[in-house]
Amino acid sequence: MSLFIRSDRPGTTDDGPPADGSSADGGGAPGDGAAAHTGWRDRRPAAARALRRVTTALAAVVVLAALVVPDRLSAMGPDHFVRLPVEGLLGTALLIALPRRARRPAAVLIGLGLGVLVLLKCLDMGFYEVFARRFDPVFDWSLLADGEGYLTATSGRAYAVAATTGVVLLVLLVPALTVLSTVRLSRLVDRHGRGATRATLALGTVWVLCAALGLETADAPVASRESSAFVQERAGDVRASLRDREHFAEAAAHDAFAGTPGDRMLTALRGKDVIFAFVESYGRSAVEDPRIAPGVDAALADGTRTLRAAGFSSRSGWLTSPTYGGGSWLAHSTFLSGLWVPNQQRYRSVVTSDRLTLTDAFRRTGAWRTVGIMPGVTASWPEGEFYGLDHVYDSRDLGYRGPKFSWAPVPDQYSLSAFQRLEHGRPHDKPLMTEIILVSSHRPWAPVPEMIDWDRVGDGSVYDGISKRGKNPDEVWKDRSSIRTEYGNSIRYSVNSLVQYVAKYGTKDTVLVFLGDHQPSPVVTGSDATSDVPVAIVAHDQAVLDRTDGWGWSDGLQPAHDAPVWRMDTFRDRFLTAYGSRPAP
């Protein structure tokens, strides 16, 4: 980079031309032809001197910023950069102590380390904004590819390519910039060794005094050790992630229902059509955050009354999801397998195992036809066999001929209408157990479909006009209040789709269990929300709900604030116990 010009030519100093008055470019006395080869630095020594000082100052700023930049966007204020990082002092002391020949390689390595540090913090910033957690350097790389696919689906291929190109450039430029900066500063140590030593000792004394006095700015100590603590924490995370495979294998080896014969499972639900429905991004904030909840709470109250008028009762509680802001498949596998699945490694392990899932338990009995309605699946989905589904309808099988609603390939009402047409409304020799994924409340929550008369749904072409009338996600995402409003609207739409479907097409044998898979991203919830999601059971037969009397759940679709909160992985065993036998040895 031309910004970091060389200033360590033999015979030069950082403050001017060679002390002997000769040309810095090796030229001789005037008149011998050297003038024709005089560099611009010799012609404009004051400008060259100023430029050297500016670039050196910029190099120091880059190194300082790399050491103190936070890992969260919410902390990215000017006060946070008023720090004296001990790592910078130790790095300078190392360069001073090393022989001259070793300084340049050491500076390059330090610069590369700083570049990696900054990139990891950038990844953390993104993950905190979307998933409310930091980036896992062992398990989370696959999520970056998912992010590219999400951008393609919501903003188009060109935007995704541009964003990916920007990320690649960032990955290349950040380490290059930090390396150039540390090398530049190492040259300063070469030229001014004594001054660098005095400055390092003076700043070290200041650091010790600030640490002893506990001086703070922006609620953080001026005497900073953030980078070393960050590296130490991340190293611990990596060790824990690498050990996680063993811990998960031990947990998965203990399955309380693995030995339970099919004729003893789910006996209290025989003859019932059971639906497990996941509502995308339906989190506790949708029900309790005053910036979102009023519209959603009204929809839940209206839904409870509508179902009651149709002869249905309902109860609700809370589950703690293993994921936040995304990674729906982690929540689905946790809920159905009875194992805690917070990362991709565990997901791959569980879906390639013979673990009994809640849905597969229905198939094991031989008393149900098991079906999946997966509008968000656009390619082959081998996990269907693991989940025990006799048949899976993905987005290509539902017969939809309408527009996409941003990411969502199919509106929720259409998915339920297709389920009625393809399965529920057709005669079968067995009742149905169905897993349905409702995706209309998936980020970016615009445009949101509208409820229409069920007889008008048809092949989905009716949604063309509805999509055009909807809001543009680019406009919605300019303002956080607009994001929350549209998020709440999308949850209301999904809940209304389910409620109206059950009220219209449900029978005395219908049992519905529906829940959120995770909270929406922190841009909606803020940074202090829990990972809890609502869960509800709806049934026409009161005996089905009586089996949950000991759960402490609230009546209706809206769980009370103090209703029990269970980890999502505990639901499988509670459900199998309530509606069948206790675990077999």
Can you walk through the features of this model?
Residues 1-41 are annotated as: Disordered. With 585 residues, the protein is an alpha/beta fold. It has 2 domains: 34-241, no CATH class; 261-537, Alkaline Phosphatase, subunit A (3-Layer(aba) Sandwich). The protein is 49% helix and 10% strand. Strands 5, 6, 7, 8, 9, 10, 11, 12 and 13 form a 9-stranded mixed sheet that branches. A two-stranded parallel sheet has the order 1-4. A hairpin with a 2-residue loop joins strand 2 (216-217) and strand 3. Helix 5 (141-155) crosses helix 6, helix 11 (328-337) packs across helix 12 and helix 15 (412-424) packs parallel to helix 18. The model is unreliable at 1-36 (pLDDT under 50).
